Amino acid sequence: MTPDYRVISIGTLAAHPLWDEKTPRRTGHATATLVSVGDHHILVNPGLPTAAMLARLSERTRITPQQITHVFLTSLEADHRRALNSGGPGGSGGPGGGFEHATWLAHEVELEAAITAYKSARDEAAQAGDKDLTRLAKNELAVIERCQPAPDSILPKVDLFPLPGVTAGTCGLLIALPGSTVLICGDAIPTVEHLLQGKVLPHCVSLAQAQESFKEAIEIADALILGRDNIVLNPLRRL
Q1: C-alpha to C-alpha distance for 63 and 53, rounded to whole angstroms
Q2: Sequence-separated (6 or more) residues with CB below 8 Å from residue 45
Q3: Any idea what DSSP says for residue 151?
Q4: For residue 155, what are the contacts with CB-CB under 8 A and spacing of at least 6?
Q5: What is the C-alpha to C-alpha distance for residues 38 and 41, in angstroms, rounded to an integer?
Q6: In degrees rounded to 5, what are phi and psi of residue 231?
Q7: Are 122 and 136 in contact (CB under 8 A)?
Q8: Apex CA 137: angle with CA 170 and CA 200, to 5°?
Q9: What are phi and psi of 230, to 5 degrees?
């Protein structure tokens, strides 16, 4: 069965370094994509707040939130998962955002790094007596610990494609179509300007890894769904 895919919401950077922006100009959020194989549906990077994410899903597809079987996060940065941070329109306050029933997935390396970081932040805040930061870290940790390590193949012809560098375990999804491939890049290639100028984001945990991941992405895919932009044809390949 051939996978289907659709961009649900085009993301943006809070500050676009290639537009000479030094400080945040807008609320950043990741591009959200729906990938479907039969009755299985993966929502990738639900970075908008819950109400906005549910609205975009309704505007762009006939799939309902209840039909989402998987949520995949290319990274565990907060602006990739805002819709998971609340219990949805009902306001239960716990992790979910209308996707409580789905299986939440992230690359194992990313999951381990994020859990370690938030546990450290929680403990430091608690030791400092900062109740607000302690509560925030606990809430973020609850969302992240709800995620499971993603298998190498989430659905038929929808495979993990590790792209470390921007974060420790940034990971894309490679979609195999008849005669071509589509790569959901995450922040490994955030915008069309980064793609055309061959640049990565400045805030990388490993610049060398990020640059290598960028090269691997443009070598493998015919089309690229960028982390903070739309889908584009790979300028180095032709369909």
Answers
A1: 13
A2: 11, 30, 31, 32, 33, 72, 73, 74, 80, 81, 186, 227
A3: P
A4: 3, 35, 37, 40, 42, 70
A5: 8
A6: -80, 140
A7: no
A8: 25
A9: -90, -175
Task: Provide the token pair at 225.
Answer: 């769904």
- Token digits for 59? 């505007």
Domains identified in the chain and CATH numbers: 4-233 (3.60.15.10)
What are the strands, taking DSSP E only, across the chain? 4-9, 32-37, 40-44, 70-73, 103-106, 148-149, 153-155, 158-162, 171-177, 180-186, 223-226, 231-233
List, in sequence order, every residue forming a beta bridge with 105; answer none if it has no partner. Answer: 72, 148
Residue with tokens 């915008």: 191
Q: Tell me, what amino acid is at 203? A: H
pLDDT in tens, the chain (239 residues): 899 999 999 999 999 999 999 899 999 999 999 999 999 999 999 999 999 999 999 999 999 999 999 999 999 999 999 999 864 443 344 566 679 999 999 999 999 999 999 999 898 889 988 989 999 889 899 999 999 999 999 999 999 999 999 999 999 999 999 999 999 999 999 999 999 999 999 999 999 999 999 999 999 999 999 999 999 999 987 54
